[in-house]
Amino acid sequence: MFRLMALLGGMLLSSALLAQSLPQPVLTALQKGRVPPEALGVYVQEVAAPGSTAPALIRWQAELPLQPASTMKLVTSYAALDMLGPAYSWKTSVYLNGSLDGDVLHGDLIVQGGGDPHLLAENFWQLLHQIRAQGIRDITGNLILDNSWMQPQSMDAAEFDHDPTRPYNVGPDALLVNFNVLNLHLHEQGESLSLTPVTPVALQTSVQVSLGKGSCSAWRDGLQPQFSLIDQQIHLQLSGTYPRGCGDQSWMLQPYPLTPQEVTGALFRQLWQEAGGQLEGAIVAGSVPTTAVVVTEMSSLPLPEILRAMNKHSNNVMTRLVMLTLDHQARQAPASAAAAATLVQNWFARLGIDTQGLLIENGSGLSRSERISALQLGSMLKHAYASSVMPELLASMPVLGVDGTMKNRALNQPVAGHAHMKSGSLEGVRAIAGYVLAASGKRYVVVCLLNHPNASQGVSAQDVLLQWVYANG
Question: What is the 3-state secondary structure (H, E, C) of 371-388?
Fold first, then answer.
């Protein structure tokens, strides 16, 4: 009896020691990447029945608040599913203020944004055709763009990393069409480079680019785009160098410093003209007057599909709009980023999770101030797995080695295809969070937050961790 008790005690002690340390393969991978274990917060816990007190498989510096990068999107996603419900959708509405004489509107047309996070150019085209279907062709007044759904933003796209044309730096807007991004096609022909817009917008271009030597993997680095708005038309002056022999490329750019209103207005003019319409007035900001009447409206995709597009491809501005929606719905007032952050912070506490050290700014992870611990994020994921919206959250996450931002991770490992995992990446930050279905049939919450100047060299250690959980969980 004494020997049995001693044996059981030794097994419990061994399990406890394991939970307080990192697996040796992970330590070896970290050493190769010159990343100290002290730079990590790790939490691995079986997703057991509610109320289970099973010890964590790994709990390494799990209480340490760290920068989560885009794994913070999982917090926003679960909060949205819980507070808005999986059937929630956004509406973009169109009004007229004036009189309709045949197919001529003597007055203004108003497009009111409702914060739709996924209002693509093709959806906007459809909305305009819905307007045409109501018998409106020519507009003698102005096009009024109403973004009063949210409070004015002071965000500067150049502030985060001084690269404001990058799509990930787009700020939120109530009427954000095509993520405020232009899709441009670059074509190399002989000794010259031509540029054609794929996004249906009237674009005047001036290309003064020389072809030379360089790596095709870094073809963007030598190009300097400069956008301006002249007579309500977008102009692009492109200069710099382009590596010879790199061929055709697709280039996604935010036309900084133009505002979303200016870009949406240019899109409207082009698409309205293509639809056979005419706009005589200007494009201005404003709100829906009390004398206006509804022309038509368009509903977005439902929330689960929005989250799938958002998380699979780690879209920052979509996340920020989802976050703002939580506040708009809660207060039925223009959405505030600060109020939304407080709302989510309070919601997190209502889950019964300690919020000490938790700091939410915009909910997307594109932030240097946001903080969360591996234990907090892992506990939230464990709570989510026992909730009624678990299928929607799980389906929104990239599948390891299969799609989204995790498509090229752990490709030659057995764990590939057996993990729904959100990644996060900033300079000095690499993070993963999600679920692993182990070979044993047990499912585990896995969170690994890494903050270190050599963080990019720690990605392989995170993949090793996922494989270790798959094999040993």
Answer: EECHHHHHHHHHHHHCCC
Residue matched to tokens 């764990």: 415
Whether omega for the bond prior to residue 289 falls within 30 degrees of 0, making it cis, is: no
The span from the CA of 396 to the CA of 77, in Å, is 9
Count of residues in the chain: 473
Q: What angle do CA 6, 12, 445 make, to 5 degrees?
A: 165
In CATH, the number for domain 15-87+304-472 is 3.40.710.10
User: Residue 3: its pLDDT value, please?
Assistant: 42
Q: How many CB atoms lie within 10 A of CB 302?
A: 15
User: Can you give the pLDDT at residue 154?
Assistant: 75
Structural contact between residues 210 and 222, judged by C-beta atoms closer than 8 angstroms:
no
Contact 177, 267 (CB under 8 A): yes
Q: Take residue 437 and report the two structure tokens written for it.
A: 């279905």
Sheet containing strand 182-189, edge to edge, reads 192-197, 182-189, 249-253
Nearest to 274 by CA among 103, 104, 102, 132: 132
pLDDT at 51: 63
Q: Which ranges of 2-120 does DSSP label H, i.e. alpha helix? A: 2-19, 24-32, 73-84
**What tokens does 450 get?**
């890494």
Q: Answer whether 0.85 is exceeded by the pTM.
A: yes
- Helix or strand (DSSP H, E) at 466: helix 459-472
Residue 228 — φ and ψ, nearest 5°?
Answer: -150, 165
What residue ranges do the domains of the chain occupy? 15-87+304-472, 90-155+259-300
CATH of 90-155+259-300 given 3.50.80.20, 3.40.50.300, 3.10.350.10, 3.90.170.10: 3.50.80.20
Structure tokens at 178: 């095509």
| pLDDT value of residue 191 | 86
What is the block-wise mean pLDDT of the chain (473 residues), using blocks of 10 residues?
38 45 96 97 88 85 98 98 98 97 97 98 97 97 98 82 90 96 93 91 92 92 94 92 93 95 95 95 96 98 98 98 98 97 96 96 96 98 97 98 96 96 98 98 97 97 98 96
Identify the CA nearest to 327 among candidates 74, 86, 76.
Answer: 76
Q: Which residues are 195's β-sheet partners?
A: 186
pLDDT of residue 49: 63
